[in-house]
Amino acid sequence: MSSIYLWISSTAHITHNRCLVRKKKLFIENYFNPFNLTSFPKHCLLFLPQTQPVPNPIAYYLHQSPWWFHQFETLSNHFIELVVPFFVFLGRRMCIIHGIIQILFQVILIISGNLSFLNWLTIVPSIACFDDAALGFLFGSQPGGVKDRVHKLQLEDKPPVRYGCLVRRLVNISLGVLVAYLSIPVVMNLLNSNQVMNSSFNPLRIVNTYGAFGSITKERTEVIIQGTSSLLANDSSAVWEEYEFKCKPGDLKRRPCLISPYHYRLDWLMWFAAFQTYEQNEWILHLAGKLLANDPETLSLIAFNPFKGKDPPRWIRGEHYKYKFSRLGGKHAAEGKWWIRKRLGPYFPAVNLKGLKNFFQSRDWPLPGQK
């Protein structure tokens, strides 16, 4: 039963995401697994370090790796996530190997990107792969110590199996069978090229599919929030100044942040918004309204406010840019730039508080600046 629990636990944190390569959605699991059961996208990890939600400095260097290294990463992912989980059924030694491999795999993911606490949580079920003998080296061997007391307990005669123990075993087996049965549609969804994320397949909601994000693309786009004090938004002489978020790419010369296991939720939401439209993310106009009012709570989520100590901006707009890492040793890197960007166009038009009034009222949102 413990083996069933370990397998279910180790796969419970597998998320089902898709990688968009050559305009075809390709399945990836456990946040960054570029795998599809009907195709073999060996080049997916060529883009992943650059296009993940919040890259860290290590991702910059991983992105510069040769193509064969990315193919090796992909093959390793296939093996670790499709073969290694079954090691828990192959006896004590293989179960320990499973725990070691899974923990090392999650540590690599932690190092390669800012994925908040997700991979840290995934390590927890793998700890159960190690029994007392495997963890004994962590404790001293002095008489009366933890290791000595456990050893004495193990030498004691085991009491005969009682009726209550048999009932508990029967309940455990029944629960295992129930979870296995409820997992059938989840596994079928896993094998489907049009798989559904963040969904339940039964009213009990015991076994579900979920994920941190739904897709990874070949290109990275960013929404850059800008403000101006100009009376007219379309004035050619207007000076637009950029807000800087705490972790997401913005300033080309700012080193990518390293915050795991901490999580900047607003930065992640900006990543989602960048490959959608502002109509699909109305909250971003709510954010613009708060910035127009210099709302202190909202500004606490921002790393740099260009209007700090000044009057609030009269207009806020969103600009859409394509970002990519500078080439290591190249011209832009020599200038101290971690990123290169190209403007794609407006993301949302310039707005002011007066123009947002009806928008806020229609959604029963309190107007910014009003208590």
TrEMBL record:
The membrane topology term of the UniProt record is: Multi-pass membrane protein
Origin, by domain of life? Eukaryota
Q: Which biological process terms from the Gene Ontology are attached to this UniProt entry?
A: protein maturation
- Domain Lipase maturation factor 1/2 N-terminal, chain residue ranges per copy: 45-135
Pfam families, per database record: LMF1 (PF06762), LMF1_C (PF25179)
Choose one Gene Ontology CC annotation of this protein and give it.
endoplasmic reticulum membrane
> What family, per the record?
Belongs to the lipase maturation factor family.
- What's the protein called, per UniProt? Lipase maturation factor
Tell me what organism the protein belongs to: Monodelphis domestica (Gray short-tailed opossum)
Organism placement in taxonomy: Eukaryota, Metazoa, Chordata, Craniata, Vertebrata
